Amino acid sequence: MTTRQHDASIYEEIQAGERFKELRGRFRGWVFPATVAFLVWYVLYVVLSGFARGFMGTKLFGNINVALVFGILQFVSTFLIAWAYSRHAAAKLDPLADELRNEVEEKTAA
Would the pTM of this model clear 0.85, i.e. be above it? Predict the structure, then answer.
């Protein structure tokens, strides 16, 4: 078996293992719901902007209307999602990914 084939079999072995499946599940369990929630929030903003112009044009104070507040909240929610994902990755994904990487490195070094 060549070195390249040996390395490929190590990656296949890791990918088939329970810890990799757990890592993938933790990732998907966070990313998919967060993505759906953000897309719903974004589509709501677009739909309201197109079909509820009266509501979106409602002045809240001064020249600040609902549409402007919702638009700013789009940016705020983007940063909050990035921050929350960073915390999730640091706590739940990175430790397991580091274990798997170390295992691969040990097997490929041998």
Answer: no
